[in-house]
Amino acid sequence: MPTVSIQRSPQGTYVYVARQDNTVESRPVVLGAAEGDDTSVKDGISVGETVVVDGAERLRDGAKIDVPIQGKGSGGGKAGDGGAKKKRTR
Fold it and tell me: Which of 21, 35, 43, 89 is the most buried (most CB within 10 A)?
């Protein structure tokens, strides 16, 4: 997954996972190896889940995000008063 999606706190590493209702939940993750702009995840998310890659510093559990329709606009949605982009994990 994109390394930029990884957040750090005193409790450990986590990511914001987008739910189908366009809200987010923080999820603890166990990281694996990093290569370039990507980091593998050993535990905490599944293939196909969508993580926030931009604007996570403005999020809290349950925050609503706006996600543009792919192929329209310049990309990126909004989280609170700023942009939040999300990316599906591989």
Answer: 89
Q: State the CATH number of the domain containing residue 27.
A: 2.40.420.20
User: What separation in angstroms does the CA of 84 have from each of 10, 21, 55?
Assistant: 23, 15, 4
Q: How many domains does the chain have?
A: 1
Distance CA 63, CA 41 (A): 23
C-alpha span between 10 and 88 (Å, rounded): 26
8 A C-beta contact, residue 62 and residue 25: yes
Q: What is the pTM of this model?
A: 0.73
Q: Are 53 and 24 in contact (CB under 8 A)?
A: no
Domain that holds residue 36: 3-88
Write out the two tokens for 36: 């370039």
- pLDDT (tens digit, 9 = 90+) per residue, 42-82? 999 998 898 998 888 889 999 998 875 554 443 343 334 33
